Amino acid sequence: MAFERKKKEVVLSESKVVEYKSKIDYLQYTDNENEARELLNLEHQVIFCSGKIEEMRQKRWEALTQMRLILKKDGSFSEVMKLIGISKDMIYDINNREKLFVKYEVDRQELAKLPTRIVRDLVKEDFGKDEIIEIVKAENFVEKYKSIKEDRNKVEEVQVVEFEEEKRKKEILDKIKWHEKEIKKLKKEYDSL
């Protein structure tokens, strides 16, 4: 007898309740129904904790941003962060997320989901607002980021090739002009003889 996988409400916070139904039939992985039920409960726990981590990351970001605004007046932000155990990498990450938030007006919750490496790259490279929003709102933002980056690299490669072709054409044209001048000089010299 197979146990029933029911939809279960997973409360992530007071304001965010997610209705979640497992897509996994754990009886494929174990013959024991009790183990299958336990795996299902553990899956729900993982989903719950993942939501909490996301929520806590956003709250940490907001708190650190507020601290930065308050402490910015006398420049003691870095010192205070060091004293409470916040690494420079985390500070850079928060600053980068804030830059994206301010520049592109992207939802903080969506920005909080992005991995640090992608956030850093989005700030370093000059992505357009539409590209940023497309990446942030994508279901699989890592794949979307890679896809957009590959497309940008292809465009850059084409531009480099076109530039090289134009440069070579100009070099050839300059040589032709030089040779035409030399031919005119030689004709003049010939005519004068």
Describe this structure in words.
- This protein is 72% helix and 4% strand.
- The termini are far apart.
- Helix 3 crosses helix 5 (116-124) and helix 6 runs antiparallel to helix 7.
- 9% of the residues are buried.
- The chain has helices at residues 33-71, 77-83, 88-104, 108-113, 116-124, 129-137, 141-192; strands spanning 8-11, 17-20.
- A two-stranded antiparallel ribbon has the order 1-2.
- The mean pLDDT is 79.
- The protein has 193 residues and is mainly alpha-helical.
Tell me the structural class: mainly alpha
How far apart the termini lie comes to 113 Å
Order of helices and strands: EEHHHHHHH
Helical content band:
over 70%
Low-confidence stretches: none
- Count of helical regions: 7
Note the overall shape: elongated
The strand line-up of the biggest sheet is 1-2
Roughly how many Å is the radius of gyration? Answer: 30 Å
Mean pLDDT: 79
Fraction of residues in β-strands:
under 5%
User: Main sheet, how many strands, which sense, barrel?
Assistant: 2 strands, antiparallel
Q: Which labels suit this protein?
A:
single chain, 193 residues, mainly alpha, two-stranded antiparallel sheet, 7 helices, 2 strands, 4% strand
Blueprint of the fold:
Elements: E1 8-11, E2 17-20, H1 33-71, H2 77-83, H3 88-104, H4 108-113, H5 116-124, H6 129-137, H7 141-192
Helix pairs in contact: 3-5, 6-7
